[in-house]
Amino acid sequence: MTKKISLVLEGGGFRGAYTAGCLSWLIDEGIEFKYAYGISTGAVHLCSYLIKEKKYLYDLSTDYIADKQLVGWRSVLREGRYVGYDYLFYHIFPEVFHYDMERVLKVDTEAKVGIYDLDLGKTVYERVKELDKDMILLKGACTLPILGRIVDYEGRHLLDGGITKMIPIEEAVNDGIDYHLIITTKPEGYVRKAASWPLKTLMKLNYLKYPSIAKDYAIRHINYQKQIDIIHNLQNAGKALLFCPSEIIPVKRLTGDKENLKKLYELGRKDMEKRKQAIYDLLAKANENESL
Fold first, then answer.
1. pLDDT tens-digit profile of 115-146?
2. Which of 163, 179, 186, 277 keeps 20 to 30 A from 149, CA to CA?
3. Contact partners, residue 288, CB within 8 Å, separation at least 6
């Protein structure tokens, strides 16, 4: 009986520097995954990992993500939203990084990214090899509600898949994957609080045409706990390894200075190295009958 193993990546905004560090370690070790799942920032870092671009991982997560042009009032003045997704996808990626999305599309992988489809009222998964070369779908996959504009793509209206699937473990399980290496950006034991009444009201008022998103946002904390419970059950069965920051570094979803972002990136590398044997043991289980 063949076995499959997946890489599962949470989002987390600035906290994705931890994920980027973990992925750079995997690249150094030559570890690849045919099956991988990314949400929000995790979706962007997943694409860089697939083409083994450590420089993209490091530069975006420790430098450019903290650019004052990207998050803050300069973005409000330029784009009318607190996060400058246009600045990121139409300036940083093409003009600074010269990001070659066509390389990503050519990778032999079954990787997926989660995107919230407002018209369907749910998170759907797109295969990475079927994304568009202009990165519009990827932009939709990480555009936070309220903080960014709805992304239009071929008549679809899209936002961050983390509205319902913060950790895309359910999709991996539904795809019949046997083992999982999971990277999250929250500390161990993190409990997500319910959204506040003002925020829930703001969601309703901003998305009157799409009532499902406000309903989903109101139970986001419940869905998150369901995903954590699935991961814990997999861990207890010896079918998953969970990586989360082993130290508290003052970086939040949309705030963090470059020094602390670099510390968080290096923490990801350090945490992976510390549990190196456990990673290879998990890979060995999946590799008994099938090569990665």
1. 999 999 999 999 999 999 999 999 999 999 99
2. 186
3. 3
Q: Give the Cα separation of 84 and 70 in Å (integer).
A: 5
244, amino acid identity: C
Other residues' Cβ atoms within 10 Å of the Cβ of residue 179: 21
Q: What is the pLDDT of residues 25-62, one digit of tens each?
A: 999 999 999 999 999 999 999 999 999 999 999 999 99
Which token pair is 173?
A: 């399980």
Q: What is the pLDDT of residues 216-269, one digit of tens each?
A: 999 999 999 999 999 999 999 999 999 999 999 999 988 889 999 999 999 999
Ramachandran assignment for 189, one of left (phi > 0), alpha (psi -120 to 50 degrees), beta (any other): left
Could you give the C-alpha distances from 70 to 39, 60, 64, 95, 169, in angstroms and in order? 20, 11, 8, 15, 29
Spell out the alpha helix ranges (H) of 146-210.
169-174, 197-206
Could you give the CA distance from residue 11 to residue 60 in angstroms, rounded to a whole number? 14
Report which of 178, 238, 183 is spatially closest to residue 42, judged by C-alpha positions: 183
Q: Helical H runs in 67-155?
A: 73-79, 85-87, 101-105, 136-142
Q: In this structure, are residues 114 and 123 in contact, taking their beta carbons and an 8 Å threshold?
A: yes
- 207-239 burial, b at 16+ Cβ within 10 Å, e below that, comes to beebebbbebbbebeebbeebbebbeebeeeeb
CA distance 229 to 182: 13
Whole-angstrom distance, CA of residue 199 vs CA of residue 39? 22
Distances (CA, A) of 20 to 17, 222, 281: 5, 27, 22
Query: What are the tokens at 100?
Result: 């070659």
217 neighbors 210 (Cβ within 8 angstroms): no
